[in-house]
């Protein structure tokens, strides 16, 4: 074949790509892939094939698909998938010209694909290279001709606009075209209905485009307030009136459509109403003032749309029930997928199905609650003299009914959960910190959010309406059951799920008041005995476990006994079809048991062994989310009886969990759950627990660290990483001192991993383990010897540090080296005194090439400690050698350490007092203010163009400034808690930091180890400030080895005051000269407050 194929030849190649012959199809596809670089006019030929009606639709469709691929791969570097061979400007113009005509293709699928091609080109070329596109589209839509050809063009134009507005229309581009575009869209929507699918699709797309334009306009309200107000005030009254008409539903006409099975007409209505409600939501959020000022919206006008929302939920619920909830086969099922085949193939209907309609209305109603009118709509005042005595209006009671109706699980969810229990766990049982579940179903989550907002905004009347509705709902479910309706139980299950998921809201401090006991005793307890609906039975157990505080002890003990017996007996998990060995009922029981352990651990204690045994029998077959749920439940069940667990149970638990972990080492969530479990176990004071950890858990994990790449080519790294994570948890959780044999069990594998690993995170975790060993069991490190080379633990530790501090290694690997060395110096300096000079030289050499302040701090920590206790020796050592920096220049090690420390002092947490006098050393001082940086927000670009310049000041001056800065911070902290004096006012009013956009350090996102370095030795106050309340007790125990350290009990404020007063008294004139020359006015004021 020639390199420049004719239309016929290219058509032949395209037809071959549709062949069932794999070889023929593959060859044709390869040929098509090569043509763009061989034939410059390839794109034009494809476009002309699309417009040539003499070819069949399948071939033209193939041409349009390949043209889109051509645009994405060859049109411009704008596209991420661009591979080169871009067409010339002339060829692009010709392709755009031809493709503009394809918008009128009579075949819907081809028209849709061509619109997509034009949209892709527009992403790149509009408006700079294709400015006429949008005016052409608007003119096409405004064409008053009623012919089919014009309708096709309108449909194609709207498809392009819909994509363009959603992805590429900026606020600057919208403003010039808004006054032409929006009336054009209005004319499409307000045109009389003709009941066709294409007409509905055009209306839905027009509403969607209008909504996207409004979203864009919200971004420019502050920049163009007059223009935005003008556009919205001119348009909103008419649009809102139109929306009112579109939301109004003729109940009889709707029922007639259903009776005649004209479901495509129902889907047309559903699609339009979905988009209208979404658009009203945008107006309510972004243009509420315009909404109120519009002519149609006065006083209670918003209530009109609330009523229309209620009407929509009410009229469409019978259809929703048949299409989405019922198991009995019905023609209405097609509505759940978007209606007729033509509608199902159109994305605009796929996103606007009967399944999605309730959430659009509910989200709008939830936003109404943020407006003042909500209380008028939903609250009655029972007493004119007591405005707080409120009750729910009928509207609120109706809304609560909708919550339970649309909170029911769908048929697809039910079938999906039965097929895959992991999906059930993820969508139904996974909790966040507030014991709430992010429910998988769109409508279930929407109604939970609505009820939560109702409780927040309206308070007690909402709960009153809920409790009033519960008996009505159960009666309705009973009637449905007696009528043989198979999904009768979903209504009760919905109430249990929605209310249970908000148990935290109900039971919080100062929360609403309610009485759940009657509902539990009358309805929920009867569900526990089982029946034909396992999900309802399981949901009953979960519900009761969420409200343990509100039930009597007798009732709870009765439920607990039945729950544990049912779970342990295996009756709830006898399901041959379950791959995981867990039925939905079993999973609900596990969730309930976890809640009982959390809220009423004393209830669970008598049954702990039986429950634990069953959980361990379930675990081997559990997969994915189920296995994590089982591990977390084991954790909860063991915690209340931690010190009472017997050896047999502990060994079985250890073996079972570790075997399961070994089969799933790549699941990081499972690794986290196992780590948390063993960390909890390690906090026990029971000798049996320690024995199980030392003799069973740690040896297996230590052995896993010695696995080589040859033994496990694919998983050797994740095996080591998961093992190190669990070991780290055990050593962190163990209180002082370490139990005998703990370090010995993991030492060989730990040092092998440190010596061979290149992964920074793995190295960090290994160093964390060694730090715990040094702090809690230094003797084990000193006394351990390798069976291979007979080297001691200290020798291996020093070798590992040298490996980590290699300049070729990432800094992130050694972030905590300083912390480790610091504790080694504190606990056992004698053991490393022989290698200490070489170690300090290594630290100084690595500090010379450090690039980050965090890593520099880690390198400086050991020097800071030693300078305080052995200043002369350390200073002599640092003055005895030079180091080479990143730029290749050498400098005295002493100058490097002190200057780096001072220059990065602002990023350190705590500063040491260094009593040295080396005037020849100068360091970076304050910023030099110039015309280029004064009153200027310094972005990275500006900083690069105009780099900041700093003073060069003597080291003694820099140290004094650091100490005064820390003193100011301490005095300000004292003042905040009422201990300061009037002279302190204004000392901490430095607002310069507000001008910086970059390099802001968010301490809330830092780990405790990153924050606590020097300051963890400066006294208990520093630790307290930086410690979460929930972890106070654990941290106090974890820092037990620091309590006797003199730095731990140092009163930093008093120490700084005494020190500055002392150096001033020693040389008043010298101090005065140093202060006046180098301290700022604010710093001088701080000094004056203590002298």
TrEMBL record:
Q: Name one GO cellular component term.
A: nuclear envelope
Q: Where is the Importin N-terminal domain?
A: 28-105
Could you tell me where this protein is found in the cell?
A: Nucleus
**Tell me, what is an example of a GO biological process annotation in this record?**
protein import into nucleus
User: Per UniProt, what is one GO molecular function of this protein?
Assistant: small GTPase binding
Pfam families assigned to the protein according to its UniProt record, in alphabetical order = HEAT_IPO9_c (PF25018)
Instruction: Name the InterPro entries on file.
Output: ARM-like (IPR011989), ARM-type_fold (IPR016024), HEAT_IPO9_central (IPR056840), Importin-beta_N (IPR001494)
Q: What keywords appear on the UniProt entry?
A: Nucleus, Protein transport, Transport
Q: Does the keyword Protein transport apply?
A: yes
Q: Which residues form a coiled coil?
A: none
Q: PANTHER family, from UniProt?
A: IMPORTIN-7, 8, 11 (PTHR10997), IMPORTIN-9 (PTHR10997:SF9)
| Protein's name in the database | Importin N-terminal domain-containing protein
């Amino acid at each position: 074949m020639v390199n420049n194929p004719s239309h016929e030849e290219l058509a032949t190649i395209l037809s071959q790509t549709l062949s069932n012959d794999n070889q023929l199809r593959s060859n044709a596809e390869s040929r098509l892939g090569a043509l763009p670089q061989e034939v410059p006019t390839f794109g034009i030929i494809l476009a002309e094939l699309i417009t040539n009606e003499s070819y069949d639709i399948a071939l033209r469709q193939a041409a349009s698909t390949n043209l889109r691929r051509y645009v994405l791969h060859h049109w411009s570097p704008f596209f991420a998938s661009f591979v080169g061979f871009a067409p010339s400007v002339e060829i692009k113009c010709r392709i755009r010209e031809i493709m503009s005509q394809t918008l009128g293709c009579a075949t819907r699928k081809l028209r849709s694909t061509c619109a997509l091609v034009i949209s892709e080109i527009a992403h790149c070329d509009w408006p700079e290279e294709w400015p006429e596109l949008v005016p052409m589209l608007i003119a096409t839509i405004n064409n008053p001709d009623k012919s089919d050809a014009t309708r096709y063009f309108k449909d194609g134009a709207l498809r392009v606009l819909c994509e363009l507005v959603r992805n590429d229309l900026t606020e600057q581009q919208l403003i010039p075209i808004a006054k032409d575009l929006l009336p054009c869209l209005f004319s499409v929507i307000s045109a009389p209905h003709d009941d066709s699918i294409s007409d509905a699709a055009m209306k839905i797309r027009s509403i969607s485009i209008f909504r996207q334009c409004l979203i864009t306009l919200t971004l420019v309200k502050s920049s163009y307030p007059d223009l935005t107000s003008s556009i919205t005030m001119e348009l909103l009254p008419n649009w809102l009136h139109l929306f009112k008409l579109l939301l109004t539903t003729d109940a009889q006409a709707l029922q007639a459509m259903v009776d005649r099975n004209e479901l495509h007409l129902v889907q047309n209505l559903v699609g339009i109403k979905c988009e209208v409600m979404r658009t009203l939501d945008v107006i309510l959020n972004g243009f509420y003032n315009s909404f109120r000022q519009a002519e149609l919206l006065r006083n209670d006008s918003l209530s009109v749309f609330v009523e229309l929302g209620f009407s929509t939920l009410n009229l469409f619920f019978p259809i929703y029930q048949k299409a989405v909830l019922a198991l009995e086969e019905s023609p209405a099922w097609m509505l759940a997928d978007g209606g007729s085949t033509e509608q199902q193939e159109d994305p605009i209907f796929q996103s606007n199905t009967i399944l999605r309609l309730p959430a659009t209305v509910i989200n709008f109603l939830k936003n109404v609650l943020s407006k003042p009118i909500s209380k008028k709509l939903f609250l009655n005042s029972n007493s004119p003299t007591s405005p707080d005595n409120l009750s729910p209006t009928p509207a609120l009671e109706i809304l609560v009914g909708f919550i339970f109706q649309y909170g029911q699980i769908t048929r697809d969810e039910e079938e999906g959960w039965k097929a895959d229990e992991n999906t059930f766990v993820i969508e139904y049982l996974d909790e966040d910190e507030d014991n709430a579940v992010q429910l998988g179903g769109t409508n279930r989550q929407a109604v939970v959010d609505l009820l939560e907002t109702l409780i927040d905004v309206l308070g007690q009347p909402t709960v009153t309406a809920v409790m009033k509705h519960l008996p009505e709902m159960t009666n309705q479910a009973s009637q449905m059951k007696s009528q043989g309706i198979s999904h009768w139980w979903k209504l009760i299950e919905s109430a249990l799920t929605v209310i249970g998921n908000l148990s935290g809201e109900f039971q919080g401090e100062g929360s609403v008041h309610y009485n759940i006991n009657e509902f539990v005793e009358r309805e929920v307890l009867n569900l526990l005995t089982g029946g034909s609906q396992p999900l309802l039975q399981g949901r009953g157990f979960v519900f009761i476990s969420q409200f343990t505080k509100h039930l009597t002890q007798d009732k709870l003990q009765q439920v607990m006994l039945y729950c544990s017996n049912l779970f342990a007996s295996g009756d709830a998990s006898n399901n041959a079809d379950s791959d995981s060995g867990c039925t939905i009922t079993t999973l609900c029981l596990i969730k309930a048991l976890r809640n009982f352990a959390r809220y009423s651990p004393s209830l669970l204690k008598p049954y702990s062994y039986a429950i634990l045994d069953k959980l361990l029998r379930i675990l081997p077959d559990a997969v994915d989310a189920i296995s994590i749920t089982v591990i977390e439940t084991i954790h909860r069940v063991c915690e209340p009886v931690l010190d009472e667990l017997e050896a047999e149970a502990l060994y079985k638990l250890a073996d079972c969990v570790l075997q399961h972990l070994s089969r799933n080492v790549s699941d990081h969530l499972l690794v986290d759950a196992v780590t948390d479990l063993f960390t909890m176990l390690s906090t026990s004071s029971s000798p049996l627990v320690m024995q199980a950890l030392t003799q069973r858990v740690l040896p297996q994990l230590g052995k896993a660290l010695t696995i080589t790449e040859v033994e496990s080519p694919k998983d050797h790294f994740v095996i080591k990483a998961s093992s190190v994570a669990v070991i780290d948890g055990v050593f962190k959780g163990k209180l002082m001192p370490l139990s005998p044999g703990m370090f010995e069990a993991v030492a060989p594998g730990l040092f092998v991993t440190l010596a061979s690993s290149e992964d920074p995170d793995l190295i960090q975790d290994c160093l964390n383990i060694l730090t715990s060993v040094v702090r809690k069991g230094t003797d084990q490190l000193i006394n351990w010897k390798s069976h291979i080379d007979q080297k001691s633990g200290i020798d291996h530790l020093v070798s590992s540090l040298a490996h980590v501090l290699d300049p070729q290694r990432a800094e992130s690997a050694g972030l905590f080296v300083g912390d480790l060395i610091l504790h080694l110096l504190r606990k056992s300096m004698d053991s490393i005194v022989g290698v200490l000079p070489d170690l300090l030289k290594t630290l100084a050499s690595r500090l010379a090439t450090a690039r980050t302040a965090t890593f520099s701090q880690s390198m400086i920590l050991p020097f800071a400690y030693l300078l305080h206790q052995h200043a002369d020796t350390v200073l002599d050592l640092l003055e005895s050698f030079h180091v080479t920096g990143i730029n290749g220049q050498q400098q005295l090690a002493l100058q490097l350490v002190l200057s780096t420390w001072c220059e990065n002092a602002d990023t350190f947490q705590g500063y040491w007092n260094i009593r040295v006098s080396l005037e020849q050393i100068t360091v970076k001082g304050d910023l030099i203010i110039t015309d280029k940086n004064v009153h200027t927000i310094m972005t990275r670009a500006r900083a690069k163009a105009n780099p900041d310049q700093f003073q060069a000041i003597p080291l003694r001056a820099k140290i004094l400034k650091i100490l005064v800065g820390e003193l100011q911070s301490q005095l300000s902290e004292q003042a905040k808690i009422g201990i300061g004096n009037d002279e302190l006012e204004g000392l901490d009013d430095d607002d310069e930091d507000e001008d910086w956009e970059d390099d802001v350090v968010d301490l809330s996102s830092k780990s405790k180890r990153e924050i606590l370095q020097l300051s963890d030795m400066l006294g208990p106050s520093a630790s307290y400030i930086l410690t979460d309340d929930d972890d106070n007790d654990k941290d106090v125990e974890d820092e037990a080895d620091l309590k006797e350290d003199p730095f731990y009990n140092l009163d930093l404020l008093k120490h700084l005051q005494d020190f500055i007063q002392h150096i001033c008294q020693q040389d008043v004139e010298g101090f005065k000269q140093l202060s006046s020359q180098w301290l700022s006015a604010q710093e001088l004021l701080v000094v004056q407050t203590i002298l």
